[in-house]
Amino acid sequence: MLSMLFRLPAIAYFAIAPLGVVMAVTLYFQDRAEEAEKAAARAGKPPALVKIEEFQKGRNVGPAHEVNVLGQVDVTRMVELTRTKRGVESDRWVMAPVYPTNATSNAEPAIGQMIQRGHVSDAALQKLIAAEGAFGPIMVLDGQMVEPSNERKALDEIADKIQLAPTALLVDPFEEGRTAGLAPSTSGRDTAIFALILALLVAGYGAFRFFSERNRDRLDDPEGGYI
C-alpha cells in the first residue's frame, strides 16, 4: 500500500505539494498568534479569581484563553484515560468533574471539568486545594479554557462516567504553575516547518517523476528522440 504512494503520476504530487505549503503556512501563523497571546498573558496578571458557578465566558477569560476559577472537584470520579499505538502510550488525560463551591451533592451534571493532558501527580493536585467542600476539595483552577471540540474523542469516551451540563467549562489547569503553563513553546513552529519540508520534498519528488517519465517516453519513441 505504501509503495503505491511513490507510483502516482507526477501531476498528483504537484497537486498535493501546494496544499502542504498552505497547511504549513496556516500552522505557522496560528502558532505565532497563540504564542503572542501567551506572551500577553505572561506580561499581565491572571484573570480575577471567580467561583465557577459565577463564571461568565464574556467577562472572565483572559489572553491565551486563561481562566481562574474556584470549583469543587469530585476526586472520587476522577478518570485517567490513556491511548496506545502499537503498544506504546501516545496520549494520556486526567479528568474530573467540577461542581459549584456550595454544592452539597454530585447528583446533578457537572458545570465544569478539569481536563489535564499528560501525567499529574498527587502533590501537584494538593497544591491546587484551597478548602474542603461538601463532597470534594475546592480547588483553584488557574489554567486554559479548553474547547470541547478539541478533546471530543476523550470526552465521548468518558461520557457514561462524567455527566456534563451543556455549558460546562473545561479547564486545563497549570499544575506546574502559571509561569510554566504559559512558557514559550516551539512545538507548533516545529510542526509547521516539518510540514513545509515535507511539502517541498513532495514537490521535488513530483519533479523527479515528471522528468523521469518524459525521458522514458523519449527512449520508447525513436521518432521523438534527439537528432
Given helix and strand content, the structural type is: alpha+beta
The CATH C-level class name of the largest domain: Mainly Beta
CATH topology of the largest domain: OB fold (Dihydrolipoamide Acetyltransferase, E2P)
- Overall geometry comes to elongated
- Helical content (DSSP H or I, runs of 4+): 25-40%
Protein name: SURF1-like protein
Keywords: Membrane, Transmembrane, Transmembrane helix
Transmembrane segments: 192-211
Report on this model:
The chain has 227 residues and is α+β, with helices and mostly antiparallel strands. It folds into 2 domains: 8-30 and 186-220; 46-179, OB fold (Dihydrolipoamide Acetyltransferase, E2P) (Beta Barrel). 37% of the residues lie in helices and 26% in strands. The protein is built from 5 helices and 8 strands, in the order αβββββαββαβαα. It has helices spanning 10-43, 122-128, 152-157, 178-181, 187-220, and strands at 50-51, 66-73, 79-85, 88-99, 110-117, 129-132, 137-145, 164-173. The protein has a 5-stranded mixed beta barrel with strand order 2-4-5-8-7. β6 (129-132) and β7 form a beta hairpin. α1 (10-43) runs antiparallel to α5. 23% of the residues are buried.
